[in-house]
Fold each of these.
Amino acid sequence: MSERVLVQHLQARQDGPVSVSGWVETVRDQKKVQFVILRDETGSVQLVNPATRPAEDGSEQDAGALALTTLISELSHGTFLTVAGELKHDERVKLGGVEIKIGALDVAAAALAETPIAADSGMDKRMDWRFLDLRQRRNNLIFRVQTTLEHAMRSYWIDRDYIEVHSPKLMASASESNAELFSLDYFEDQTAYLAQSPQFFKQMAQVAGFGKIFEIAPAFRADPSFTSRHATEFTSIDAEISWIDSHEDVATMQEELLATAIGAVADKHGAEIKELFDLDIVVPTVPFPRIPLAEAREIVKARGYDIPRTDGDLDPEGERQISAHVLETYGHQFVFITDYHPEIRAFYHMRDEKTGLTKSYDLLFQGVEITTGAQREHRVDVLITQAAEKGLEPEHLDFYFDFFRYGAPPHGGFGMGLARLLMLLLGQDSIREVTYLFRGPTRLAP
Amino acid sequence: MSERVLVQHLQARQDGPVSVSGWVETVRDQKKVQFVILRDETGSVQLVNPATRPAEDGSEQDAGALALTTLISELSHGTFLTVAGELKHDERVKLGGVEIKIGALDVAAAALAETPIAADSGMDKRMDWRFLDLRQRRNNLIFRVQTTLEHAMRSYWIDRDYIEVHSPKLMASASESNAELFSLDYFEDQTAYLAQSPQFFKQMAQVAGFGKIFEIAPAFRADPSFTSRHATEFTSIDAEISWIDSHEDVATMQEELLATAIGAVADKHGAEIKELFDLDIVVPTVPFPRIPLAEAREIVKARGYDIPRTDGDLDPEGERQISAHVLETYGHQFVFITDYHPEIRAFYHMRDEKTGLTKSYDLLFQGVEITTGAQREHRVDVLITQAAEKGLEPEHLDFYFDFFRYGAPPHGGFGMGLARLLMLLLGQDSIREVTYLFRGPTRLAP
């Protein structure tokens, strides 16, 4: 493995012997010369071979040269190979100003001649052949951006002494509600459920005295919807912290976290995102704007959109409208909507004693909700009352109520969908584009 | 939230007003003076209050002081509270040389008087009340060690341009074998399976041209065993890399990764691990010793243990014996056992052309297997043949074979159980001790 040179390092390297490995992007098989564009995980490079064709007059020829020419002629798109050759800098070569004259060519695994998808194939077809779809430079970049985004978030937390937890995805009870739960048979007549969120277990870390925790892990929803923002399995980014005064402390952490992480993406991938997505990454300033829900609804109404929902919440168009307003007014892509009525929030959201509204927020990014955050109710008697108001059966929640019977700190946190964040950051129109292998009601494979 | 001072910062702070938050470890309620040991996520501190008891002669007293004394007398172990008071350095105070004279005491949530577990409660009882069990300093430290370990591993990979993937846990087919799979109903008459490992999907990243990837995520096994090393849900640490020459390249990466990560743990937590576990963290030197399986069996036999297994593999006692040999001979806690026969390895392990043995290894740490690593077979025709030899039904694997029909690089990787590594590193006798919330055949809650 030691001798392989990554394509990104070729330009800085002196002319001479070199070995590269990757897959065939294109072959231009001209009569006198053959060109292969080889790609690896870091870039593309032009390989060249002076073709040796069978002599028409039957005169003797170099058998090795003939064989190499034939081998190159028969290369399929996607074939993985290693080439040893001579590196030469040549400013006429558009692709990086270097070229490799092929010495030896070793095919690792040849691709079938017919590629089942093309660059313009539909989304569903592309998902069928996701491993080929992911070879596109844009798609590769998406997952490098994801990597940077997550590492920057984790580093933010680690620098501040957060503990990373891995909460169980198999549960004996529902995590938040009984709706949209996958269930399975679990040994001798038990039923297990797949966690919709780590909500209860990240709260458990607070009563365990962990102080500040985070988790990035899969969550599952048996949600039959087919929108561009929903999946049955998604990566959830969660954090929970103790000794807060209100949801405002959670919002402050989240906005710092996002500004840091998006800043890291802009630094590391900004130029390439510009090239491949024609997009400028905007690193958000802190604090993000905050607007109480009631005021947001007034603003949306004044803009001429009458929200049809009667429960007092925003709908997707309302979210787009308020985000447009914020962008126009404050030049900001993010906005915290605050002060939701308890009726449209989970039972465990703490309520403000004066207003009766929840100490919670939704975070919108470019018109789409990416997060719900809140201070949680840590007083067990209040919590039980609020659960009862929602008609939840206390026997299923008793294990959760127990958490708060032996002492609990004030605490709160947020959950954020990784794919939604990434979709919006890279200007994509569906989370399918930014999910390694999407899972939906009719999509379980590959 | 801004005014709270963490206990670890008290020593360096000047005498004067201070506010701390945490939970009650102990109360010593003496007639003339009351002491409370308060713990937060960073340490413990002594709070003091000169008791004001009701005067026996009925003379007038400070009502506030009386109330505070009563409040402290009634504090339960585990009650979370905030105390504002006066910090005073006093070298006679054993606990950190500081003390806080209580000014105001605000209870966040009072604990029930009876704590359901004690320090010496059995494992099962402690798991029932895991959120209380986790308050122990040792248990808290376990998860801070876990956090450091994981972050060091991810940083190692990120520094080397690995891509982080989140592979799906819901699958249409089995991931490796049909044994020990959880299945669930998935919308209109579909069946989904929970991934036993990300094996196929991390290989998919290689044919997608990702080059080097990692994932730390849950995996699921419907395994009815009750050993100290098995769980139905566990955190799997996985990496996969392209363009390797053999499994040796994977082993080299893994030993560097582990040396780096264990080094980070020793640096950050070494002293505290020594204090709480009476254990010196040994940072392993690289390379780790390597011993071919056949030779390992000879060594074990020469030590007087005759392995009863007839399949040529080691058994748990054989693993302990060979590890003891390596420790005695090389002073090393790790050993790679290599050159396994194909009959005892997965069908996708590549075989050495000369020996017919697989290009794979097991990594043992202190006598316990923590990893299997291998070069994978990337030639689809060979792969199909090897699957057929194992009696696997090709129709269930065709989606996987497809990965290799459109070009593939030589590649390999490993999977490692986080809990096993942590258990051994901290000298624990069960993965239950180092798992946030353990899941086993009879354990689904809390």
Note: The radius of gyration of chain A is 28 Å.
Amino acid sequence: MATDQARSESEGTDTFDEFESRVQRISNVGNAAGILRWDQEVVMPDEGTPARAQQLSTLSSISHELLTADETGQLLEELESADLSEERAAVVREIRRQYDRKTSVPQELVEEISETTANAHPKWKQAKEEDDFETFAPVLEKLVELKREYAEHVDPDADPYEVLFAEYEPYIDLETAERVLENLRDELVPLIEAIDESDADLTTDAFAGEFDDDDQEALARDVLDSLGYDWDRGRLDTAPHPFSSGTQFDARVTTRFEEDDLLGSITSTIHEFGHANYTLGLPDEGYGTPLGEARDLSVHESQSRLWENHVGRSRPFWEHFLPIARERFPELEDVTPEEAYEAANQVYDDNLIRVEADELTYHLHIVIRFEIERDLISGDLEVEDVPEAWNDKYEEYLGVRPETDAEGCLQDIHWSHGSFGYFPTYSLGSVLAAQLYAAAEDELGDLDDDVREADFDALNGWLRENIHQHGKQYETQELIRQATGEELTADHFLEYVEGKYGDLYALEGY
Amino acid sequence: MATDQARSESEGTDTFDEFESRVQRISNVGNAAGILRWDQEVVMPDEGTPARAQQLSTLSSISHELLTADETGQLLEELESADLSEERAAVVREIRRQYDRKTSVPQELVEEISETTANAHPKWKQAKEEDDFETFAPVLEKLVELKREYAEHVDPDADPYEVLFAEYEPYIDLETAERVLENLRDELVPLIEAIDESDADLTTDAFAGEFDDDDQEALARDVLDSLGYDWDRGRLDTAPHPFSSGTQFDARVTTRFEEDDLLGSITSTIHEFGHANYTLGLPDEGYGTPLGEARDLSVHESQSRLWENHVGRSRPFWEHFLPIARERFPELEDVTPEEAYEAANQVYDDNLIRVEADELTYHLHIVIRFEIERDLISGDLEVEDVPEAWNDKYEEYLGVRPETDAEGCLQDIHWSHGSFGYFPTYSLGSVLAAQLYAAAEDELGDLDDDVREADFDALNGWLRENIHQHGKQYETQELIRQATGEELTADHFLEYVEGKYGDLYALEGY
């Protein structure tokens, strides 16, 4: 019996090694593609596109073939009946999930979706430019159909939207997500109304003016220095749509500079730092397997939002950072930390555009998209009725009605990519950020002094220990439970914003 | 019969399409690896190495597996008996050659060579730093043995050095290469002696001084503008060891700036432009197959040397470029084009270092390496005797004897990579550059006026038509024959340098 056990373990080990090599190979191909995409966004010359498209397509199909090969399926089966450590079992779980998804959908459908989205993107762009929803509607309808079909293949018994949501957030139940989003909607609508009616006189022009690009870049580097970015494993560049990408050995940040938006460049840099800092906290030894890869979109977004909002939009941060900003921009001489704090936390209650929203109204933009895409996929809403539904919801939740579809339902790129189920992860990320920050302060005590001194060792140590180092070892809801002792909840976020904005806008009852 | 013929062609076509997809896939993986290597040299943060090494190793093994797969062999066999166009037959010929090489060598030997070179590089570095040949000798000996074994697998009937040379230059006979190198040696040794004995008083300090890096970079961009570099398909960056890489859609140049070496930065930039310009001239429609890839090392080097030497070190170039350089560096105000020309063509007859050599003595550095590595591989020279053989040859050919091995046989990295047979391609490239430039002038007339006006349309048009557009369609010696009407010959190079340096150094009999 002991011998049999030893033998089964040893066989499991050999099989696992073979499996791990395959997984690492897939991961390396994916990381190579990541470098190619970074290159394309940041440094590639304009006319490099045709060759780059072919290179990326080749890497993507190699990766797909490696993942969906019969050998992968056989290894998974063998390992699922072997006696594995918790870590190894987690690797098997993650690859099993990807394998099942990829092998359940016929290749022709994958290709049809890929072609349709390639075609949808220019249509969406044109529709937005010309403010003509009719240009986009037919291809959106086609995408909705194809995505429903896709979901049917993955799991014929499940709610199709749930299947699509799980594409981005595999380990948070849709029910949990819905509960959080409804909670946000129900609490934020009255809070924003109260702010709208408030007479408070916030200083909003602290960063008005024109700011040189090169100086903004130097200041972005100052920001990253303050936050403790590891330049030996990262770099800062500019990109039209800022993003972070890479691995624990090389996690890069991009940002952008607009002459009249110094604050935007600072907060965007902090946001992308949060993403990169998560990546840098993944364990080196897990490189190439899910143990060295970030948990999914919501956890990633929790890291960017935690740094952007809980650190970067706090009073103590501006007490620390304003003197540094003044070195680069002497015109900020007369701005006080309190004024900077107020400018960084202004609520734009009549804004129609998601990407220009503040941290409060932002979630109503998300709730609106979530409700619409969920109803689109279920068939409760027809594509042709999207513009009116969109505008009605803006009026109901935010008290403003878009006058055009360009600044209404055509504003975001996501649906043209067929990305239904993606939007909720933005809000879940913010909610989780607040929950994590509260848990960190529970354990470490109030962090304001640390932020004021730009001493992030304790906070980052807590994040490394409770989130980063685990990679994908735990399912998301389990990871949250272990880190905070609670299920995912909007409570901490609501407490945070009610306290902060109640104070800023001198709201009664908050 | 007509039907059979049609059928055989159509089957050939289907098979060719399948074959071409496979070839394109291999090419795309290789080009992706090229981007990863560019990234590593130019922008990657220091600590990115471990992950990058794994990514590159994965891409390399995927590429190897695709090339050496049984399917590749079957497709090759089918296509070799099909009725193919000249272009398609060339694609088959090129892949056949790679396939045969790769499949003839056992994977264990490939891995042993790979491990040994990985180990050899630090040993070489240490040996060079400590000027201690004994540190490098054992691993060099091992590499010589392994490379002999490698050659034996590829072709047991051939001279092993010939097999290794063909790794870098598959379509130039070693006999031709030897003839050219001997010719160079026999003619250059007396020419350099004559220069050594000349009383000519060249101006060599035209570019003495200290030059700011940023201004040097601006000037490097001016150089590339003058030469007509296509910025929509390229970029300029810095790298410790300048190189060019990429494809016809995206061919990038790197250079380096040293405060006290403005001239070196200019000539290095022109050299790398020549490489990139060749890549940019490859046909777009051939991307992904040998028809869209550069012929081998000697032809590539002919392009860099043609621009560097025949254009960039010419009188008319400096008549054009000196005024531009003065805009960036007013301290060059009093330098005349003739003085710049003299400085750019100074012969360093007591220089021991290949990479610091002028365009004349350079080839004796190469001949010495060629003679030594050929004798090492044949067994006519033992590793322990390399330092003395090296020093003797320097004394014999160049009239200088290295006092240390660090500035002698340890100076170059190549042998630590196991690259025996690489060195000759440098000289073959220069020789071919002169042959091509002469053929271009034969057809287009004297090009001095064009160079003086920085009008390179005719010259580049000639290169595009006679070299670039053909990719790998023709074997190298055939390509040279078609472009110049002659076999590869050192005659034009010797005529060029004898005329140029005879004039510069007022040599009798030249």
Note: The interface with chain A takes residues 24-25, 28-29, 31-33, 35-36, 39, 43-52, 54-55, 57-59, 62, 231-235, 247-250, 252, 284, 287-288 of chain B (CB under 8 Å).
Amino acid sequence: MSARVEGFDFDGYLASRRSWVEEALERLCSSRPKRVPSRLWSAMVYSLTAGGKRLRPVLCLMAAEAFGLEGQRVMPLALAFEMIHTASLIHDDLPCMDDDDLRRGKPTNHVVFGEAMALLAGDALLALAFESAIEGLMANHFSGELISLAVMSLAKATGPSGICGGQSMDMGFEDMGQLGPDRRVMEVARSKTGVLIASSLEGGAIMAGADEDALSNVRGYGMALGKAFQVADDILDVTGKVEEIGKSVGKDQAQGKVTFVAVHGLQGAREILEETSGEAKEWAAKLPRPDMFCAMVDKLMRRTS
Amino acid sequence: MSARVEGFDFDGYLASRRSWVEEALERLCSSRPKRVPSRLWSAMVYSLTAGGKRLRPVLCLMAAEAFGLEGQRVMPLALAFEMIHTASLIHDDLPCMDDDDLRRGKPTNHVVFGEAMALLAGDALLALAFESAIEGLMANHFSGELISLAVMSLAKATGPSGICGGQSMDMGFEDMGQLGPDRRVMEVARSKTGVLIASSLEGGAIMAGADEDALSNVRGYGMALGKAFQVADDILDVTGKVEEIGKSVGKDQAQGKVTFVAVHGLQGAREILEETSGEAKEWAAKLPRPDMFCAMVDKLMRRTS
């Protein structure tokens, strides 16, 4: 069933922007930059082209377009979000972390290239994200001020108050005893998933020249969408099939991770998905093109039904 | 013996700038940023405050000052270079990499915090470098254009054509069969050490508004200085005492790494140190304050005698 909102073919739009991202990734990966050693490059390209929904770069394009910018102009920034996301997956999969050997239906990076190379490939993708975002946005004639703001947001979402902090909590390294399990699982979702998703939308809006009020609404939408996405992911971890979700099923459960399903039960998690999705739609109403942003929420919810 | 060049007390200057850096690092580390989990922050702070020469941030300040800028203004960028350097050391020391348990005279990060946390602390420092550099430079009223250029240089030096690429070669992951050992060791030194040192000088000069010709000379000096530094380091690995160099002696040798000493012998390495130092001084002559930049070369050479 195609999602048509007020005559707008959202599924078609999504497919088109996803193919833009895939094409841009292919262009990037097909020519190894000068001075980059070939095996390291292979390891980076392996994970970057291993598929996935390309959610973050698509959201970056969406936000830029909703605020009136030609989407292709922010592609260097959009790809940077995918690079950061990919780097975090490579490192999360390492034996000393979640020790996963399957990701997006393929052997994980360290299974193919070894632990040390996977570590380096993650580091290299992390740094390349910043390098290529700045270089590409400068080439596309954006002002240094806008570039600085968007790249700072990306860095913040990546670092200790974002993904890295979330992973440290998710691994059980942090003393969160003062928080109940319901607050803990929400805090992990916020920093591990929400912040980067919010930042990808914010980055697109920044480059389109959105003002501070608008950016605040974009972030609100992004944080709610990101949490909803994490709840949906936790539900899929127990209800999905391996060929559908492309990674080991029941893994979170087996590792005793604090997921929404573990804390609230399957039915409880579905209710939280309803709540966070509703919250995201309230924020969407404050954005330009609310139809598009609402359709994205619906799309995400349908994954779990 | 104090190094006085034309009446300029270089040792005093160096000590002063090093203490600036230490003070700024202490300020940074003493207040955990909002939303950063405490154990992750402890792991980051542990390695960031574990001592070291603070060569890269000092070079960043030096270049800024030589080109007429008040040094403290570029401190956020200077600290970013130290964060990147520290992140690379934490990851290099991991068991899957060089498996080192001693660094700067203290147990390495993973020995104290475990492998997974050390991995995360490195990632977090990497991202924090970009975040705090942009945030701090914006707060110091630099233009977005200059910030973008300096941060792009930092990212390039960190990524696959810089440190990460160098480490991949150093680990023996890359097929460098077409290059003789002398070219290989130089290529590793260039990307693993030279590029970040050059970038730290370039970053300071960029923020001071140096023009493209001047930046090219700064990079030339930095690359030569970086190579000389690596040669000196290799020499110290075999001639130094553990209490002097703060890490395991003879480790490179024991691991069969392609060092300047392994390839050229101790005497040969000393000759290459003379050559690269001479090269660095030739570049120094083209910079403002050549006395200061030459004194830095001499300082570095004295480490090995």
Note: The first helix of chain B runs from residue 10 to 30.
